[in-house]
Design brief:
Blueprint (H helix, E strand, L loop, with lengths): L7 E5 L5 E6 L1 E2 L4 E8 L2 E8 L3 E2 L2 E2 L6 E4 L11 E5 L5 E5 L1 E4 L2 E8 L2 E8 L2 E2 L2 E2 L7 E5 L11 E6 L5 E6 L1 E2 L7 E7 L2 E7 L3 E2 L2 E2 L4
Amino acid sequence: AVFDERGWTRLYRDSNNEISIALDFCFNDTILYEYVCDRGAVRQVIHGCYLCQDGVCTDTGAILCDDSDGGIVTDIAGGVVLEDADGNRTARKDFCVSPTELTEFSCGRGEIIETTVCCTCKNNQCVTSSGTTLVCNDSDGGADLDVQGTATVTDTWSGVIVAESTDFCVEEKGNGLVEFVCSGSYISSTSAPCRCVNGRCDLLP
């Protein structure tokens, strides 16, 4: 991930069939959404910036936030390190609160974000029992830009929802959409420039 250069990430079904494209973008003045390839899928990395403009961090030296597992990734025990303009560092590591609850740390809004995830938790990550799987379902059936949907990952053994993301407009001005879709048993995302209203692209002229 290169945070001071804007790029495209392309996901292919095979060597000739392109199925999605994601463009790095600023969520707000201090948050960059960077897209990278990971195990055959597009993965979203949320990075805290001192100032984010036009899909790049314009001053990465003032505030740095790095997440070793790349975001809210519950099946990897990761950690977050935040460094401010004075060089002071704050570190947090994902941990199991109980056998059924994970505290996941990620970067966001120039600070460390703490998220509670309900799952079977072991060794500071979400796990599934032998013979069980995680299942992902997208309520709008995939990359349907004119319908707001929610992608949900469920642990089939416990029936617990371990991750859930709903399509949303990038900015209050409504000039872009972040669309969440299933990529195997995980949630990935793509972005689309459009007039966005209530988490969907308004395709009317």
